[in-house]
Amino acid sequence: MAPASAFDPASATNAWRVAATDYGESTIVLPALASLRQQAPGTRLAVLELAPDRITRQAEQGEIDLAFHTSAGAPPGLRRRTLFAERYVLAGRADHPRLQRKPTLKQFCALEHVLVSNSGGGFYGVTDEALAQAGLTRRVALSVPHFLFMIAALAATDMVAMVPERLVRGNPVLKTVAPPVAVPGYEMAMLWHDRAHRDPSHQWLRAQIQSAVRPGSL
């Protein structure tokens, strides 16, 4: 078995394929992109939309090299590496009158919320589960399938959303505050098939992504 050092990124011509949601694109692929282009300029990268129910088959058949998914929701049978832990913050437009300080729980529930529904069209999520334990509800006025549109909707309206902190970190058009309700976060993982585990080029790619998203790198 050739050692990982046998891979020369400067002369490589690999075409890698990774599966990610728009959240994964922004928080994992994008931070790694500049380094990948600089160190391996002859390679190409295709980002496919993540289809959770097809990850295992795609990895087995070599259709994808990597997938980025929550650790809790990742399918069994694939290699994995935890990339980072994520937490939720409350976000709205930068000059939102209700977000200049942390809202009370009553104020939070009275606001109009945006929800990203991966299954499509849902109006109930982890925040609603947390509120239900306290006998409370909120008004979800908009359900969307992608974070990109959610951010645009927040910037253009008085709606707010519970969003992953890494996704909106440093965004000048949004204001974030700690939410008045405790909502559990999650871990993001990198997944791959055992067939590629010892491949030198694959090892290099995984190391670049791990380095790009390690704590303190963003």
TrEMBL record:
Domain LysR substrate-binding: 16-212
Family (UniProt): Belongs to the LysR transcriptional regulatory family.
Keywords: DNA-binding, Transcription, Transcription regulation
Classification of source organism: Bacteria, Pseudomonadati, Pseudomonadota, Betaproteobacteria, Burkholderiales
GO molecular function, one term: DNA binding
Domain of life: Bacteria
GO annotation terms (biological process): regulation of DNA-templated transcription
Protein name: HTH-type transcriptional regulator SyrM 1
Gene from which the chain derives: syrM1_2
Gene3D superfamilies (alphabetical): Periplasmic binding protein-like II
Organism field: Duganella phyllosphaerae
